[in-house]
Write a sequence for this structure.
């Protein structure tokens, strides 16, 4: 009885082992193929639960998501034979599982190496057809699109993969030419700075000369206007004096004589030789008589 129970347990275990070996699950993020003694008998198995023959069929699963190949920086020459260090990456995914398995034996590193080699050749050709300016700024997007289309015409049939995108992360000049480029840029900037300073100095001289001219003109006009105003004032004053003194000429003559006496005898040390009956002492003599 105990022996029968033991055999039953062993048989149940073997049955469970066979059943578990016959079932496999393919996830939504996976692509799978079924092999029979190494030969592909079913490819692109849909996600879900599937059956296989134990010990006869083998199932290989691969990542169906978009993968990233981060290539090592490489040196490329432009149309002007200028060297550039380019750091790029590639987005790719499996499109045909059977071709992918045939070309790479299902090894992702092998696929990455083959794809990196083709990307390197494509970038070398694309950079060799363009100038430095076009590569850096003008036609980078066009370059990437052309390279992606060119790669897909080859790798889809040969490797069963699709290149989703190719992008350049960074473009640097080689170390040996960087200093000469920087020196040339510095020389250009210094030349531009000298030209700007020269233009600024020339404009400053023109502005200064114009300001001096305007100052001379303004001062001359001001002096002219001042002289005209002063002349008009003197004329008005003379007319006013004349009108006032004409009202009493005798008083005006007396006032002028007093003013002359004041100016003449203002300083005690002054000496003056004149005849006593001179016209100068006219009003002094009249004062004595009176």
């Amino acid at each position: 009885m105990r022996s029968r129970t033991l055999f039953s347990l062993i048989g149940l275990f073997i049955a469970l082992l066979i059943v578990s070996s016959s079932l496999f699950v393919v996830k939504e993020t996976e692509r799978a193929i079924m092999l029979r003694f190494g030969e592909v008998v079913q490819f692109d198995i849909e996600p879900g639960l599937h059956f296989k023959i134990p010990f006869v069929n083998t199932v290989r699963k691969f990542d169906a998501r978009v993968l990233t190949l981060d290539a090592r920086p490489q040196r490329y020459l432009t149309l002007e034979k200028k060297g550039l260090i380019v750091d790029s990456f590639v987005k790719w995914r499996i499109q045909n599982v059977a071709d992918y398995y045939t070309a790479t034996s299902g090894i992702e590193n092998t696929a990455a190496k083959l794809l990196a080699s083709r990307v390197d050749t494509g970038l070398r050709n694309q950079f060799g057809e363009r100038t430095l300016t076009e590569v850096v700024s003008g036609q980078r997007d066009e370059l990437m699109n052309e390279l992606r289309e060119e790669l897909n015409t080859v790798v889809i049939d040969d490797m069963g993969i699709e290149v989703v995108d190719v992008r350049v992360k960074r473009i640097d000049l080689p170390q040996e030419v960087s200093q000469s480029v920087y020196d040339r840029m510095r020389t250009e900037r210094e030349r531009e700075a000298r030209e700007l300073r020269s233009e600024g100095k020339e404009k400053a001289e023109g502005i200064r000369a114009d300001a001096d001219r305007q100052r001379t003109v303004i001062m001359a006009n001001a002096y002219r206007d001042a002289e005209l105003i002063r002349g008009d004032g003197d004329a008005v004053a003379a007319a006013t004096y004349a009108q006032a003194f004409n009202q009493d000429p005798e008083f005006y003559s007396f006032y002028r004589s007093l003013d002359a006496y004041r100016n003449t005898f203002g300083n005690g040390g002054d000496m003056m030789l004149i005849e006593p009956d001179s016209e100068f002492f006219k009003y002094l003599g009249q004062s004595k008589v009176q």
Summary: The mean pLDDT is 80. The radius of gyration is 56 Å.
